[in-house]
Amino acid sequence: MAKLKVLIIPVTPFQQNCSLVFDEESKRGAIVDPGGDVATILNAIEQSNVKIEKILLTHGHIDHAGGAAELREALGVQIEGPHKDDLFLLKDLPMSGAKFGMADSRSVVPDRWLNDGDDVEFAGLKFTALHAPGHSPGSVVFSNDENRFALMGDVLFQGSVGRTDFPYGSHDTLMASIKEKVLTLGDDVAFLPGHGRASQIGVERKTNPFIQGL
The whole model's pTM is what? Predict the structure, then answer.
């Protein structure tokens, strides 16, 4: 069993939880949601002495994907995810970056789009991609059943849920995604959201006011 470790690298003015997910024994892993500050991410990789095998994206928002094109070039690895329904967001990254003072953001198209149920493998670790729209049309959650751990993106947070006040957002769709894709993973599953602190699904089921009654 691979020994999963996660190093959080806060990036962008939004303090997004870019994460370095790796197997402690082999020192191989992946970068998840490189929203920007690529030099900071590369420094964290060097300091951790982890060989990066791929880049994963949970969705196409600027703070999660703004540095993906640059990091792919620097590392020479492929990008997997999100679901293809976020293509319009990934194409619009330069405009979004200019709006939020992240002028070096570039459009990006992943090497592999992910559908619901697709597996993503690196460093002996297998994550299943769960299509969980609502915050964005193509949002995915990455679930590693072996270690009872999930990378949540901006679907569910400690004490909150993802924003849906975008023209393409849908609160009802997000709630359905959480009910059908997230809560069914099991109360013992720990997760890292795109912002803020890690939590556990069972804790959120009991205490998160946004999902009471689901």
Answer: 0.98
Number of structural domains, the chain?
Answer: 1
Read off the pLDDT of residues 2-41 as tens digits, 9 standing for 90 and up.
789 999 999 999 999 999 999 999 999 999 999 999 999 9
Bridging pattern class, strands 51-56 and 28-32: parallel
Q: Is 173 exposed, middle or buried (0-12, 13-18, 19+ CB in 10 A)?
A: middle
Domain, as residue range, for 114? 4-207
What's the CATH number where 160 sits? 3.60.15.10
Q: Which two tokens stand for residue 144?
A: 């590693």
CA distances to 1, 136, 171, 203 from 160, in Å: 32, 16, 12, 12
Amino acid at site 19: S
